[in-house]
Amino acid sequence: MCRRVLINVLIVAFCSGILQAEVCKIDMKECVFHFEVEHRLTMMRGKTLVFPHGGNVFAYDVNDTSTAEPIPHDEVITADGWENPRLVSVVNGQFPGPNIIVFEGQQIVVHVKNKMNSHGVTIHWHGLHQVDTPWMDGVPYVTQCPILPGQSFTYRFKASPKGTFWWHSHAGAQRTMGVYGAFIIKERTETTTEDLIMQIQDWNHDMDSDTDHAKMIYGVYDGRKKRSPSQSLDSSFFSMLLIHSLLINGRGRYYKENNIDHNGAPLTVYNVKSGNKYRFRVIGTGALYPFRISIDSHTLTVVASDGYDLKPVEAESFVINPGERFDFEITANQPVGNYWIRGITLEKGRYRRADAILRYETATASDPKTNRQQCTAAKKCLVLNCPFTYYPEANTECVTFDQLKSAVNDDPAPVFEPGMSKEYFLNWAFPGVTSYPGSVNGRHFHTPDVNPLLQPKEWSSPCKSPECGDDRHCMCTNAVEIGGGDTIQMVLMNMGRGKGWSHPIHMHGHSFYVLKMGYGNYNSSTGAIQGDNSDIDCRGPVTDPKESFCNNATWSDAAWLNGRVPRVELNNPPRKDTIIVPTGGYVVIRIKADNPGLWNMHCHIELHSMDGMLLLLNESFTEIPSAPKRFPDCHSYPPSPYRMNLISKAEEHQQAEEASDSAITKENYHILLGLLIAVLSLQTILVLCICFVCLKKTKSSNDKYTLNTNGATSGGNVNSGFNMNKL
Q1: For the stretch 158-177, what's the b/e string if a residue is b when 16 or more beta carbons lie within 10 angstroms of its beta carbon?
Q2: Which UniProt keywords apply (predicted)?
Q3: Cis amide bond preceding 638, omega within 30
Q4: What is the per-residue burial (b if ≥16 Cβ within 10 Å, else e) of 115-133?
Q5: Which of 305, 275, 274, 36 is nearest to 149 (CA)?
Q6: Which three-class secondary structure state does DSSP give residue 173?
Q7: Helix, strand and coil in the chain, % to nearest 5
Q8: Where are the beta strands (DSSP E) in 15-162?
Q9: Are 340 and 355 in contact (CB under 8 A)?
Q10: Among the listed residues 97, 104, 287, the one whose alpha carbon sits nearest the alpha carbon of residue 197
Q11: Helix (H) or strand (E) holding 245
Q12: DSSP codes, 523-569
């Protein structure tokens, strides 16, 4: 059985395009991956343009597709098949990027090389808590400096907890440009259920995400006509993001206005075998829109969300928002054939669809002819994770996320104890009178220019009064101070003057317990939102709650304070890291502040996050583990006064060392001079002694060889040289 599990993992890893030679087997302690981030173009095979037809793609100069050889789908980034190539950012040449599939507890090493010419990049490991490695969370100017063009960076962290996660760029709009992929952490247990990965996103085939963001700020026009924002089924708003199609695992089709005719682009196909059970791991990778996921003629059994198991619930469909993950299981128990896998937006008056194919073994390679389930009084359609309480379709019922239960019975919510607990009200909204920036409690996030996790004294942008007052918005680096193992209860809202948008809020560093969700007031006939939930008091200087910025909210009933909110689930609350905050409503969550770090918390709608709708959780900062040596830092020029002071001290220290190494004092000079004179004197004496000895020896030799004959004196006329004959 274990062998079969391993084979499944290897097959998925291979098909997902992981390019490393190292395969993350179950017995490996360390798994190494290599990412190269670069730009590519859609609908190009190398330098050859392609076009879609009949579910295939062909070279631009093919005239007869019936006789031409199709180009393999894996050699082209097709997206929705729009023939004008669009710029994308990819990892290892793939869109989406390679999937990472590992086992719980393994050490993960990812070497990232930025081969883009004009953009820095970071990689966030969405849903992983990064216990003891907060500097590996991958948020630019929060936990690390961006990886600049040409630079490399190595991430090292532990694969924990188990479940469905994903990785993506956290820099600008790169996530929806293509820098993302699945990150699956498997349990070390046997299973016969095969995993299938589904990543769904919205897509604009004309503009990249940076252009979308600029248009959201400055205006969106169709020709000379100003574009109106699309609305949700509850009459709330989506942002000014124009999409043309939806993609599943990077593939989709562009439909005409009639939602029937399309361009015949290739789709993602999931091959199944009759009688087998399959686990779909669905990841919401989109920029803005929620999607309702279903499979024709198959009941979905939802078993997990954001990596945490749920008590199984059968449903016709479920809603997934950007950043969320849902796992569901199906049994291939229908007649052999092809069945549509559908993802539709919740737009009012517009129908956008994502298509994929569930293909049974031996079925023909053709498009399905199936239809969605008919919702009747006898067989109603159950939709999980609605962002509202009333689904405006006949015989369709909503199940909100707080109605689900954790699958385990030993993971209760942290206890709210006086003196060891705190409660925060956070309003995620666009309040304003003449300008409407994204904010939390009216605080528009001011991004640092350093890595504040490791350079805390080089950045300061506090949220001060009166600039950040009850009915004002301001720009500052908004941070919530938590820690000490306290129980933290948060009430996430979208209320007051800045309401009208539901926000999927993602928390880094933790998975929170979902205790309760409160919704606005809806029209029972149309499902349209009519007013805010009365459980919350927005307060503020204005008397009309609809005009309040709701920057300083509290419970309307003071008896609910200090953790005494009624009708909350404390024993088996589901856990998540991303939750939809319904417009006009609220979500009550709890965490235990036991993971020191500097954690981002933000709306996962890319445009909203880029517009400043985020804050930091400053958790037990003095207890944050030391980062690896030589971890990169960053700063602007001229440097901050603190850095200038550090630079000055370092320069002074270096100069002092250099002076100490090279300087010769007056005392040292005399000592050295004396030593030199002494040495020279000794050498002189030694030379004189040697000369004296040599002279003496020479005189002695001359006396030995002088002849004295017949009493003649040495001064006679004799030979005074060496007499060679006598030697």
Answers
A1: bbbbbbbbbbbbbbbbbbbb
A2: Copper, Membrane, Metal-binding, Oxidoreductase, Signal, Transmembrane, Transmembrane helix
A3: yes
A4: ebeebbbbbbbbbbbbbeb
A5: 36
A6: coil
A7: 15, 35, 50
A8: 30-41, 44-45, 48-53, 56-59, 87-91, 100-103, 107-114, 123-126, 152-158
A9: yes
A10: 97
A11: strand 245-248
A12: -TTT--EEE--TTEE--SS-S-GGG---SS-EESSGGGTTT--SS--
Listed in sequence order, the residues at least 6 apart from 408 whose beta carbon sits closer than 8 Å to its beta carbon are 309, 572
Name the 3-class secondary structure at 681.
helix
Comparing 639 with 306, which gets the higher pLDDT? 306
- Reply yes or no: is the peptide bond before residue 290 cis, omega within 30 of 0: no
CA–CA separation, 545 and 674 (whole Å) = 93
List beta partners, residue 617. 480, 599
Q: In the chain, how long is the greatest CA-to-CA distance?
A: 164
**316 to each of 3, 265, 378, 409, 662, how far by Cα in Å?**
34, 27, 14, 27, 82
Contact 499, 429 (CB under 8 A): yes
Q: Which residue's entry shows tokens 């920029």?
A: 287
Q: What's the pLDDT at 213?
A: 82
The closest alpha carbon to 526, from 392, 387, 383, 375, belongs to: 392
* Average pLDDT for 195-201: 97
Q: What is the pTM of this model?
A: 0.88
Instruction: Look at strands 300-305 and 325-331 and give their pairing.
Output: antiparallel
Mean pLDDT along residues 181-207: 93
Closest residue by Cα to residue 349 from 285, 257, 213: 257
**Radius of gyration over alpha carbons of the chain, in Å?**
38
Could you tell me the pLDDT band of residue 23, with boundaries at 50, 70 and 90?
low
d(CA 325, CA 126): 10
Please write the tens of the pLDDT for every residue from 351-379. 899 999 999 999 999 999 999 999 999 99
Predicted confidence (pLDDT) at residue 714 exceeds the cutoff of 80 = no
Q: What is the pLDDT of residues 220-261, one digit of tens each?
A: 888 899 888 889 999 999 987 788 999 999 999 999 988 899
Look-up of token digits 């004197």 = 681
Q: Which two tokens stand for residue 234?
A: 């509850």
Choose the weakest-confidence range: 1-5, 67-71, 495-499. Answer: 1-5
Task: Name the nearest CA neighbour of 163 among 107, 102, 106, 109.
Answer: 102
Amino acid at 239: S
Q: What's at 389, amino acid-wise?
A: T
CB atoms within 10 A of CB 583: 27
Neighbours of 254 (CB within 10 A): 19
